[in-house]
């Protein structure tokens, strides 16, 4: 008996591949979605992947074996490529794995379109997830070898075809939101977030979609990504609404997911003037925000700047650096409020008149060196932005605060710890 790679005989290798192929055909014939999903998994199915990969190493080419399945033409073609994908993935040849999976995924989509019901939705989710995941791995491999990475972009094009298949009427439309979320992941990874708009319009304006019909998992992911988009556009009220939806409906057991939501929700809340409790930040390992919150609470400009400098790389990667940088005005507002409160305790009749030299001295105590002209400019911005109500007297170098709510609240509700 001929023996191949790793002591596996050619006969045994052929048997394993045919057994796998027959299981896939049985799952399709019996419309067994969960079974088909597990059989098509690559990155998360180490045993299946190992079994097929080692058999493929012996057989070399599964095309001849698949010819025995002539009556399952499209499925046979799909399986030959899918097994080649598993072989390449097992040996960490991710570019080759992606190329084979791309062909397999397109063949699967052709079959999926012909199935009248949504029984294979879980299997489609697996194909979509695997293609996106392996595309990312392939792009890393290409970058390391000096080539231009373009596989994730290709995966995005395939996902748009899948979205088009699901976007019509019928039971399959329930999968549209999952594919949308996978597209978001592709666009965010590629830095082409503007491409999200057309998909969002399709979901939020198309009459065939009822948002409440979608699975909670997909609604949470969708609101997380659209909330992040609102953060980038400085639409903090909309961002707050979407990210809070994601937070409230996210399973508390998914600690990493809760942390990712809070990573963007915290700066949104801060922008709305709401300070989360430090215990919440500690609980979800968001220590990078601790000094930002303390700076706001104390009106400490120096501490805010130090916090932004210390975690600059992390904030830039998250895309929240500019949002946090704009909090400096709130810190000045809180500093002015502290000065106002101290003056009110000493002399209530003159509490609403804040001299510029007092502000200069307070800043100098915080090791922020500013002259009166610079402080005047900041006071003018605070008044213009409605962070402080009053007017500026240039002649006497005094800010005259309104006696009615001199420091307007930015609104919103606090984050629960």
TrEMBL record:
GO molecular function terms attached to this record: double-stranded DNA binding; RNA binding
Name of a matching Pfam family: PCI
Coiled coil: none
InterPro entries: Csn12-like, PCI_dom, WH-like_DNA-bd_sf
Listed GO CC annotations: transcription export complex 2
GO BP of this protein: poly(A)+ mRNA export from nucleus; post-transcriptional tethering of RNA polymerase II gene DNA at nuclear periphery; transcription elongation by RNA polymerase II
Domain PCI: 220-406
Gene3D superfamilies for this protein: Winged helix-like DNA-binding domain superfamily/Winged helix DNA-binding domain
Protein name: PCI domain-containing protein
Organism of this sequence: Ceratopteris richardii (Triangle waterfern)
């Amino acid at each position: 008996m001929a023996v191949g790679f790793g002591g596996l005989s050619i006969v045994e290798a052929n048997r394993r591949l045919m057994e796998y192929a027959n299981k896939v055909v049985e799952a399709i014939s019996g419309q067994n979605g969960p079974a088909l999903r597990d059989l098509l998994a690559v990155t998360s199915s180490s045993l299946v992947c190992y079994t097929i990969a080692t058999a493929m190493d012996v057989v070399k080419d599964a095309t001849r074996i698949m010819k025995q399945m002539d009556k399952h033409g499209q499925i046979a073609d799909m399986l030959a490529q899918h097994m080649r994908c598993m072989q390449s993935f097992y040996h960490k040849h991710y570019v080759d794995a992606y190329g084979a999976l791309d062909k397999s995924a397109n063949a699967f989509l052709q079959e999926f379109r012909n199935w009248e019901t949504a029984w294979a939705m879980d299997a489609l989710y697996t194909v979509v997830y695997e293609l996106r995941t392996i595309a990312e791995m392939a792009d890393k491999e290409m970058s390391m070898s000096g080539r231009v990475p373009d596989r994730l972009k290709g995966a995005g094009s395939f996902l748009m075809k899948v979205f088009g298949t699901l976007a019509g009427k019928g039971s399959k439309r329930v999968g549209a939101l999952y594919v949308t979320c996978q597209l978001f992941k592709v666009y965010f990874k590629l830095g082409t977030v503007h491409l999200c708009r057309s998909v969002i319009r399709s979901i939020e304006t198309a009459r065939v979609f009822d948002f409440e019909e979608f699975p909670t998992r997909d609604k949470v992911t969708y609101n997380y990504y659209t909330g992040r988009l609102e953060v980038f556009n400085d639409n903090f009220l909309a961002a707050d609404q979407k990210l809070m939806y994601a937070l409230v409906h996210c399973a508390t057991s998914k600690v990493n997911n809760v942390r990712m939501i809070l990573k963007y929700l915290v700066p949104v809340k801060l922008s709305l003037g709401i300070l989360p409790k430090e215990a919440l930040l500690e609980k979800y390992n968001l220590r990078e925000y601790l000094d930002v919150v303390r700076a706001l609470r104390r009106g400490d400009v120096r501490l805010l700047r130090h916090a932004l400098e210390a975690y600059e790389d992390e904030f830039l990667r998250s895309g929240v650096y500019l949002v946090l940088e704009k909090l400096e005005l709130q810190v000045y507002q809180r500093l002015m409020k502290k000065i106002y409160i101290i003056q009110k305790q000493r002399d209530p009749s003159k509490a609403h008149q804040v001299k510029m030299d007092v502000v200069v001295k307070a800043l100098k105590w915080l090791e922020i060196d500013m002259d009166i002209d610079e402080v005047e400019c900041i006071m003018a911005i605070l008044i213009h932005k409605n962070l402080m109500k009053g007017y500026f007297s240039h002649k006497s170098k005094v800010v005259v605060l309104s006696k009615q709510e001199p420091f307007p609240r930015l609104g919103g509700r606090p984050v629960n710890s």
